[in-house]
Amino acid sequence: MDEPFEDEPAADAAARGAGAADRDAEAPLVVPASLAGARADKALAALAPPWLSRSRLRALIEEGAVRRDGAVVRDPRAKVKTDEVWTVVAPPPAPAAPRPQAIPLAVAYEDAHLIVVDKPAGMVAHPAPGAPDGTLVNALLHHCAGSLSGVGGVARPGIVHRIDKDTSGLLVAAKTDAAHQGLAALFAAHDVDREYQAICRGAPDPGGARLRALPGVTAEAGGWLRIEGLLGRHPSDRKKMAAGVAGGRRAVTHLRTEARAGPPDRPVAARLTCRLETGRTHQIRVHAAWLGHPLIGDPVYGRVQPVALDALDAPGRAALAGFARQALHAAVLGFAHPVTGEVLRFEAPPPPDFAAVAEALGLSPRA
Questions:
Q1: For the CA atoms of the chain, what is the radius of gyration?
Q2: Against a cut of 0.85, is the pTM above it?
Q3: Are strands 168-174 and 217-220 parallel, antiparallel or unpaired?
Q4: CA 288 to CA 285: how far, in whole Å?
Q5: Is the Cα torsion angle 329, 3, 241, 57 positive or negative in sign?
Q6: Residue 363 three-state SS
Q7: Is 75 marked active-site?
Q8: Distance from the first to the final alpha carbon of the chain
Q9: Fewer beta carbons under 10 A from the terminal one: N or C of the chain?
Q10: Lowest mean pLDDT, pick from 1-5, 55-59, 193-197, 333-337
């Protein structure tokens, strides 16, 4: 599966503390009278071992890994009752400690506290089932000679936030625990400048009646669309996320169409700028699909509507046929340095595959 978070702090790992084992428990938790009526995630956090933070428990509940009196519960807001027996089902064992690997990195910035890299599409952030090595963590361990924050745990040293495997672009990692904790606080407070470039099917129209009638979608000055709503696990496909899910987490994306391809009255594709106010799992991909304009090449959310290939010339059709990932690139990352306070801002141009599609469709910035 893709990275668990699109661009969100690894809060669960931070909550466990530097060097803590990434463990879960499978032991009965009996609700005392003092917790009756509390939310499930809050009550279980009070009863479970300390390495199971409330945010970790919330995620496990949404994944179907928590049972009440033997029945699966998927709503973290469910109320608990006295003497109920809750069980947290242990996930597969954590991967072994990653090894350094001499994998080239595109470094945008580096100092004694942190490193900013331009992650290529196809690279997973950290080892996980199905991706034991060849990850960004393996590359960072080699490049930084093992000098990475331990807050993320054994398998995720230095990792503060993550972007999907097949999304390219800027990502910051921490070398020290102080930097990690400071960066995690910035992400948690949504005090990080994050801007993505994307190519979608069709072209979102801020003035269109259809889009403005969608729940949570509003037009903003400057041609921007604001999408806000709850984002959570899809009720029938746990590998997907979905908008408007009960018990989901608040997600806000600001999106603007920069260029259109195809006939003006029937655009085939568009280049988008997307700014994250929050950072949830697959947030931009889900919100684009929610608008009816899924990202080109998205294998999970991109089957909402076909591309009108007859409206494209031969180079455009060939470019789309050969593009095998979601057209999404983390182009801008800005934040206040967690140790020095210096305001940092980085920009990374889209990689060649993304740029080639944009060029073939007439969507590149210079077109």
A1: 21
A2: no
A3: unpaired
A4: 5
A5: negative
A6: coil
A7: no
A8: 35
A9: C
A10: 1-5
Sole residue written with tokens 């994944």: 63
Q: What letter represents residue 19's amino acid? A: G
Say what the pLDDT of residue 1 is. Answer: 31
DSSP codes, 118-171: EEPTT--SS-BTTB-SSSHHHHHHHHTTT---STT-TT-TTB-B---TT-EEEE
Q: State how far the Cα of 176 lies from the Cα of 148, in Å rounded to an integer.
A: 6
Residue with tokens 């920069």: 258
How many helices (H) and strands (E) the chain has is answered by: 9, 15
The per-residue DSSP string of 241-263 comes to EEET-TT-EEEEEEEEEEEEES-
For 290: left if phi > 0, alpha if psi spans -120 to 50, otherwise beta; the answer is alpha
Catalytic residue among 2, 164, 166, 205: 164
Nearest residue to 267 (alpha-carbon basis) of 362, 183, 341, 192: 362
Residue position matching structure tokens 């390495």: 51
Beta-bridge partners for 218: 226
Side chain identity at residue 235, one-letter code: P
How much is the average pLDDT of 69-89?
A: 92
CA distances from 172 to 55, 119, 159, 188, 277 (A): 22, 10, 8, 15, 17
In one-letter notation, the amino acid at residue 316 is: G
Instruction: State the DSSP H helix or E strand holding residue 40, giving kind and residue range, or none if neither.
Output: helix 40-47
Q: What token pair was written down for 144? A: 């930084």
Tokens of 255: 């999106």
Q: Which helix (H) or strand (E) holds 201?
A: strand 193-201
Mean residue pLDDT of the chain comes to: 85
